[in-house]
Structures are given as C-alpha cells and as structure tokens.
Q: What sequence folds into this?
C-alpha cells in the first residue's frame, strides 16, 4: 500500500557565495548543515541564472583535487568545459550532465566554454556531491557525459508533469547514469495545477528543490523558488502540486550509505586518518597533474 511521506523540513534559500570567478552559488545543503541528512548526497550548490559579459579569459574554477565521492554537474543555461588528471574531459550545455567519479582521486578544473567567454551569456547550473561507499572510495576515477538527448523522460499526470531521469528508475524507465549505489536524480517540470505522487522506495532519503515557480509539498507545505523540502524516510510517495504557474524542480534522494562521513574541503572519507592520507597524497602529487 502506498503512503505519502511527511515533510521533515523546509530550508530557505541561503546567501550567495562565489566558487572561483565563474559560479555565484547558493549552498542549498552541505556537510556544514547538520540537520540535513540526505545520504548518499553530501552537498548541493545551485547557481541561479546570472549574466556574464564577454571576456578575454574563461571564468571558472582552476585545478583542485577531489577524493572519495562523485561530482554531478547539471547545466540549465550556458556552457562549461571540464578536464581532469585522469585524462577525461568534455563540454556540456543546456540539459547536459557531467557525472565525474573522483574515487581514489583526481585534479580537475571547470570553466566557462570558449564560446560563452567570447560572447558572454547566462549561466545556470547545479552541482551535487554523491558519496561513495567505503569499498568504492579508492576505485579508479571515471567520467560520464550524459547529453540531454540521451536522458530519458517520463510524463505523468496526463501530461501535466514531465521528469528527466538523470539517475534512478521511474515507472520502469531507468535513468541515464551508472551509479555505485541506488540514487534518485530527476529534473521535474510541473504545469500549473498539476498534482503528482512520485513513487520512491520506503527508507530512501528524499528532497525537492524548487528552481522556479512554487509548489505545495506533502499536501500542505508551500515551497517557494530557491527553497528545499526534505522528507522523512517512511512512506513510498512524494506528493507535489504546482500552485502558481509552471514549476521546475530537482528531486533527489537514494539509498542511504550507513557509514561514517568525514568531509574536509575537497575530500570525503570515512575517518580523519583517511582525510590526512588524502591530503598527503595530494601534496605528493599522487592525484596526478593537469598540464
């Protein structure tokens, strides 16, 4: 029998801070927000639409390390390029997703594309960090470019709702990403008045972020643009209703990884000893080099 989940908390939009010189983001949740527990997710940054003038040098984030988790970058507007010390890289634009598994460690950089740099334009994107279980933290790095055309979609509520399945399964359709543990990552568009109940396994974590518009979650709780709703882990459905015009949402969640999490800067491990080793390996050049 299906059961709608209760809303656990509504988190308001946090202040903006800059990541490098190319991404003005709001940290929707992070390891520094102790009341948010959305394992396997660790962090979500959202860069609301921002206009950048033409420039001679690409803006963005220069070379930096990661170990122990995956970065997932979803582009809504604009275009960015990525490269890492494992030899992976690519360019992603509107609707595309970059799923980078840092695992045992890489250096990488993310910058505005040459075309966006030259012409100027709008950047809108989200980046999420997905934890890896201890058994996979020292796996080889890998990289998935998930182009918009390859991301499956599912329509619900007689066409009133459409979901892009970046990861996770919905109504028998599997998402585009290969993941180490079960992960939900859905882009949802709800037409005004659309009312949907999204199935999600009992015990999974779950949250909804509103990119634009406003919705009612859990039957009674209003969720404004830029806000995050978290749900308790009991129940098999998320109840959503678009209340004022169309709404664009990001639905996240997954099977929790029941292990200690120690996050320190760009590293996410299971103990402070492993963090110390990650720092030592980075300083010794064992995470590779970016030429």
A:
């Amino acid at each position: 029998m299906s059961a709608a989940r209760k809303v656990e908390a509504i988190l308001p939009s946090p202040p903006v801070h800059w990541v490098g010189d190319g991404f003005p983001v709001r940290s929707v949740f992070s390891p520094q927000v102790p009341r948010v527990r959305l394992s396997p997710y660790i962090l979500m940054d959202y860069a609301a639409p921002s206009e950048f003038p033409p420039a001679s040098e690409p803006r963005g984030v220069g070379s930096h390390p990661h170990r122990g988790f995956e970065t997932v970058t979803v582009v809504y507007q604009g275009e960015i390029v990525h490269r890492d010390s494992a030899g992976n890289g690519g360019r992603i634009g509107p609707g595309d997703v970059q799923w980078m598994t840092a695992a045992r460690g890489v250096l990488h950089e993310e910058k505005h594309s040459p075309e966006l740099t030259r012409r100027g334009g709008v950047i809108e994107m989200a980046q999420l960090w997905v934890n890896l279980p201890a058994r996979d933290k020292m796996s080889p790095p890998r990289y998935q470019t998930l182009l918009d055309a390859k991301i499956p979609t599912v329509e619900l509520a007689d066409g009133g709702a459409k979901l892009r399945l970046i990861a996770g399964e919905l109504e028998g359709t599997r998402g585009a990403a290969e993941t180490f543990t079960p992960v939900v990552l859905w882009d949802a568009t709800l037409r005004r008045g659309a009312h949907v109940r999204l199935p999600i396994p009992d015990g999974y974590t779950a949250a909804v972020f509103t990119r634009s518009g406003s919705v009612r979650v859990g039957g009674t709780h209003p969720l404004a643009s830029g806000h995050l709703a978290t749900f308790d882990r009991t129940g098999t459905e998320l109840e959503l209703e678009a209340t004022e015009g169309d709404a664009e949402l990001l639905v996240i969640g997954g099977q929790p990884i029941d292990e200690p999490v120690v996050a320190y800067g760009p590293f996410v491990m299971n103990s402070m000893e492993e963090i110390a080793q990650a720092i030592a390996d980075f300083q010794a050049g064992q995470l590779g080099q970016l030429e």
